[in-house]
Write a structure and sequence with these properties.
Elements (H helix, E strand, L loop, with lengths): L17 H11 L7 H14 L7 H15 E7 L8 E5 H128 L5 H61 L5 H56 L3 H12 L13 H6 L16 E5 L7 E2 L4 E3 L4 E3 L21 E5 L7 H32 L6 H6 L11 H10 L12 H20 L10 H13 L2 H18 L4 H11 L5 H14 L8 H9 L5 H15 L5 H13 L4 H11 L8 E3 H11 L5 H14 L8 E3 H15 L1 H17 L3 H14 L10 H23 L1
Helix pairs in contact: 5-6, 5-26, 6-26, 12-26, 13-14, 14-15, 15-19, 16-19, 16-23, 17-18, 17-24, 20-23, 22-23
């Protein structure tokens, strides 16, 4: 073999420098890395060098043999090149490289096949997903169709049942109609017989009539042509008048129906608003522990507000359509009234007819006086002198029905009465004799009697009330001047006992008439069909209004501060009901409810006095803070009120606490509950006997200037800086200007009675120390119950059965109102975002 013959062949290593020659030969190969020629050259180098190794020759020969066995395999290879013909064994690294190349090629082929399989599998997966989606859509369509099929079946069954009912009704109507037809046919036959008899009688009497007429015209120079023309003209005018009156009555009924529908829509809308308020308060009262729960609560509140916004838009559109219908109906009614007025002008007046009859009677005999009165004169003669303030107190209208009360028609004898303002049948202005007989129509089954609306002469009422109000105002000013003169000359260290118990109701200078006068100034529309609110509905509106009031205090920085509390109430109505006419209607109903329930609920009574102007608007905020403290107490005994009062009014002495406890026991009839305590404190505010108000009023007297009993803005600011140094200046300024507007004073004077400024200062003081008072209330009650003797416990438990507890409505607190105000602010922000987006 070639490797074994290297020893005998002449090699290039015969040169003197073997290293250089080896390097030169390796460079001549022009190949990098380990190759077969390179290994062959290495073994040739072994063959050349081993003979020169001396004692190491044998060991290196063995090493060479081992290297050959390790490098070369048993597989043979060779070449056909004529210059280099040899056959030798193939090295292991070439075999490994060939095997590796084959494996790489195999791997590449497998990768290509794998990619093809993946692509095919992906396409099949996509086809499968599309097929599944299509299958799910088909399933949904099938389910929808099944649901639609069931609904259609139900609808078909309902329509079938309705058809059966209608068929039964039709059979009943047919039977009744056939019976009625038979009766009417009998009546017609009877009437025909009577008509024939009457014709025969007329034919017989016509001969006598002709003779009588000939004799009459022989003695009368005047022909009957003018009278016939006059009668014809009067009949035409009367027919037109009757048609116009019927059209006016129909228009009035349509207007009443539209107003009733509008009242129903307002009531449904208020139910939605009230339900939304309950949902929002329930969400706000729940405590969210994590950020996720808070985000979920905010999302639910936004969804609730968005749903309310949708309801508001629907309500606004519906009301706009109804108002359009009312406007068109008013135009139509105005045209009918103009036509009726024109007909009234064509008809001779009563005075003119009397003068003509007097002139006619002058030449006739006295026995003929009154025998030639016209029927129309008798019918329009009014023997009843109308009362100045109430016009239709004793009037009534009758309707009859011949179909078991399903529909009603007015009686034919009904006529329009100018004094009552409506069409009436029984009326003091029409009854000319001691009795009147009305003929009912044929087959009358039901009679309906309605009374017209009572119309009041407002001008006379206003004049009388203005005189009474001016006299009350004169008396009030005299009493106020006298009381403030005495208080200014007396010692400022007057005892709190006298300030608490020596009060009267002279500060109540306005009545509810002021609310209606203000309402008439704001709108000229008349509330024809008012909506009577229940006590619960009135309380719900008050809660929402108080929430709106707190929202203006806490979230509006540049609010119209020159508004009174009454202006703010009307602004809330426009905010809540969105349409001006509907807001005025709701305000009318709300003011009527305040007037109606002021004697039932103390909170409503307090709001009424605030709106009138007898009390300052800060009293509402003050009682809300007080209710925060009341709801924090678990009321068990009447004696708990004394501990509560010591925490609320720490400036009172023992005699004041004793008198206050006795007053509460007498007021509540020895009972204890949240409602009784709040009602008692509101009663003290209304009676102007609230301890903190009286104490603050005494302190403010020291700061009055030239105007007795009043403080200017500068004087009040100085007083609050000394008495309430840490109060909110923005709230203070807003309450002062609001009090100026509520008192109907000029802004240039800016002088407010000390009594109302005491309310503002007391509220600012209580708000500043509210946290301390809340802690002191619980602490005082805990100390009192801890010091109770065991012997007295049994007696108190026995008395507790007599005291009872009042499970009244939930008190409205400042905390609750602030939550409601926060939601109102959220609604405004959400609406602004929707507008900007």
């Amino acid at each position: 073999m070639a490797l074994e013959k290297t020893n005998n062949a002449k090699t290039p290593f015969n040169i003197n420098s073997p290293v250089n020659k080896y390097d030169l030969l390796t460079l001549e190969q022009h190949k990098h890395g380990l190759t077969e020629e390179h290994i062959l050259l290495a073994f040739q180098a072994f063959d050349e060098l081993i003979p020169y190794l001396g004692v190491f020759t044998q060991i290196f020969q063995k090493l060479r043999a081992d290297f050959i066995a390790a490098v070369y395999s048993d597989e043979l290879t060779g070449t056909t090149d004529s210059s280099k013909e040899y056959v030798q064994r193939k090295p292991f690294f070439l075999l490994v490289k060939q095997d590796q190349d084959q494996k790489i090629e195999l791997i590449e082929e497998l990768k290509e096949q794998l990619e093809k399989l993946k692509k095919s599998l992906f396409e099949k997966h996509n086809h499968l997903s599309e097929a599944l989606e299509e299958l799910s859509k088909k399933d949904n369509e099938i389910s929808d169709l099944i649901l639609l099929q069931t609904k259609l079946k139900e609808k078909i069954e309902e329509q079938q049942n309705e058809m059966n009912k209608m068929e039964n009704q039709m059979e009943e109507i047919k039977s009744s109609a056939s019976f009625t037809e038979h009766q009417l046919a009998c009546d017609i036959s009877d009437l025909r017989d009577e008509l024939e008899d009457a014709k025969n009688e007329i034919k017989e009497l016509s001969v006598f009539k002709k003779s009588y007429d000939d004799i009459y015209f022989a003695f009368m120079d005047k022909s009957m042509d003018d009278d016939e023309i006059k009668q014809k003209k009067q009949s035409v005018v009367s027919t037109k008048r009757a048609n116009l009156e019927n059209e006016l009555e129909s228009a009035q009924r349509i207007e009443e129906q539209i107003l009733l529908i509008m009242n129903t829509m307002i009531e449904d809308y208020e139910k939605h608003v009230d339900a939304h308020r309950f949902i929002v308060m329930e969400k706000c009262s729940s405590h969210a522990e994590t950020d996720a729960e808070q985000d979920l609560r905010e999302l639910e509140l936004d969804e609730a507000n968005e749903e309310l916004r949708h309801v508001q838009l629907t309500f606004q559109n519906s009301v706009a359509n109804l108002l359009t219908e009312l406007g068109l109906l008013e135009q139509h009614t105005g045209m009918l009234n103009e036509h009726l007025q024109m007909l009234e002008e064509l008809k001779p007046t009563l005075i003119k007819k009397k003068q003509e009859m007097d002139q006619k009677w002058k030449g006739d005999s006295i026995l003929s006086a009154g025998l030639e009165l016209d029927d129309s004169l008798e019918s329009h003669f009014d023997p009843f002198i109308a009362q100045e303030q109430i016009f239709s107190k004793y009037s009534a209208m009758l309707y009859t029905s011949n179909n078991q009360g399903k529909t009603f028609e007015e009686l034919k004898d009904a006529k329009y009465c100018a004094s009552c303002g409506e069409k009436t049948l029984i009326c003091p202005h029409k009854l000319t004799g001691p009795e009147k007989i009305f003929i009912l129509p044929h087959h009358c089954s039901h009679i309906k009697i309605t009374r017209p609306r009572v119309r009041i002469n407002k001008q006379a009422t206003k004049n009388n009330e203005k005189l009474d109000q001016q006299w009350e105002l004169f008396q009030y000013k005299n009493s106020i001047t006298k009381s403030h003169t005495e208080s200014s000359t007396s010692n400022t260290d007057i005892s709190r006992e006298s300030s608490l118990l020596g009060m009267t109701d002279t500060h109540i200078m306005h009545t509810t008439q002021k609310l209606w006068e203000d309402y008439n100034k704001r709108t000229t529309s008349e509330r024809k069909i008012p909506r009577f609110l229940t006590l619960e509905q009135t309380q719900a509106i008050i809660e929402q209004f108080l929430g709106y009031l707190i929202w203006t205090d806490e979230f509006l920085t540049e609010v119209d501060v020159d508004e009174s509390i009454l202006d703010l109430m009307y602004r809330y109505m426009h905010f809540q009901y969105m349409v001006a006419d509907v807001a005025n209607m709701a305000a009318h109903d709300f003011l009527s409810a305040i007037t109606q329930y002021s004697g039932v609920d103390k909170t409503i009574q307090l709001l009424g006095h605030v709106l009138i102007g007898n009390l300052d608007a800060s009293c509402l905020r003050y009682i809300l803070l007080i209710c925060d403290f009341i709801t924090a107490v678990d009321w068990k005994e009447v004696e708990d009120f004394r501990a509560f009062a010591t925490a609320i009014y720490p400036f009172l002495n023992e005699d004041d606490f004793e008198n206050l406890q006795m007053s509460y026991t007498s007021y509540s009839e020895n009972k204890i509950s949240q409602y009784h305590v709040a009602s008692f404190l509101i009663n003290l505010i209304i009676k102007h006997r609230e301890p903190r108000f009286r104490d603050m009023e005494i302190k403010l007297v020291q700061y009055q200037g030239q105007e007795n009993g009043h403080l200017t803005e500068v004087e009040f600011k100085e007083a609050t800086e000394n008495l309430v140094p840490l109060c909110n200046e923005q709230i203070r300024n807003r309450l002062f200007v609001q009090s100026v507007k509520s008192s109907q004073l000029e802004l240039s004077k800016k002088a407010v009675p000390i009594m109302k400024l005491a309310h503002i200062a007391a509220f600012l003081t209580l708000e500043q120390i509210s946290n301390v008072i809340r802690e002191n209330v619980l602490l005082k009650l805990k100390e009192r119950r801890a010091h109770l003797k065991p012997i007295a416990i049994d007696a108190k438990e026995q008395r507790a059965s007599n005291e009872g507890d009042y499970n009244g409505s939930k008190l409205v607190t400042m905390t609750y109102m602030r939550q409601l105000a926060a939601n109102i602010n959220r609604q405004f922000k959400q609406e602004e975002d929707s507008i900007y987006s």
